[in-house]
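Same chain as my last thread, 327 residues:
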Amino acid sequence: MSELICTIFNVEHGFAAFVRSPNGYGLMIDCGSRPNFSPVKWIRRHYNAGKSNITYYEKRRTAKCVVTHLHADHLDDVGSFTRTEDKPKTLLWDKKTLKFVDEKIKEEAKTNEQKRKQKALKAFKKLSADYTEEGTSPDWGFDSLCTRQLSYAAAERASGDDREKIINNRSFITTIGYAGKRILLPGDMLAEGWSEVLADKGFTEMLKDIHFFVAAHHGHESGFAKEVIDRTGRPDIFIISARRGDKSVCDSYSSATYAKGYRIDGEKKKSRSVSTRNRQRSIEITIWDDGSSRIRLLEAKDNLTASQTGLRAKHTDRKIRAMGIRR
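reply #2:
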């Protein structure tokens, strides 16, 4: 029986998901991480030629990686691309907001958190330089796969002159359909950006009949848009990638008004939302070719020792030095 498996990792305040398509190819949506956990390393361990559970595309485990937008919490595991087979064959990112990355790199980083983000952005810029065009894709085996983003003008209308909001509202929105079920992954789209999305007829078909809705902007109120949920036909469940103890997650995602409810594997009652806010908990969606589906919770334990975390940082530093950027 063929199946689609989508794993949404606990990367605290960030996002990373890996989809193994029905034909066995790997699709990554963002590559965020947490201090002692690398999604790239987890994927390497669980999906490899030795296990015969992944189809390599031109010698790469990940056929394509979509970086929804250029914020560090969605791309800071790039230091784990230490092996050629780990690196995606195709990389899709927003080239029009790359200018903001250049601005951020030049700005003085006064706190450790700012320095961490700046380092991740520098490393990503180095990685992206290896990709000059989107390239080809395999026969995924999906019923549908669509990725779109707002025009720069529309994102600017929604965001004013706020640089960070423009980056968020330029998020690539991806929908994946298989066996009558559909997953929506919208990056960090904000409520104002959603208004522009609804005004664009090109998005109309994308938003229909969504069953698994990954909440935008970490499930915060800033990314909630009732009109979008209405357009999707009221999903079965919302999936939220957020940090433990995050009190900014919007309560509406747990309301019967907006979600039908879905029984998570091992639980007796239906849930309308599920999040990564429990320690080290990741979320796995499986859709089989007969239309049946399952959500189960995985314990994605820390997989980096202190020395490995240091190696990831050193690898990131090597990317930075190769760019000729003085720190």
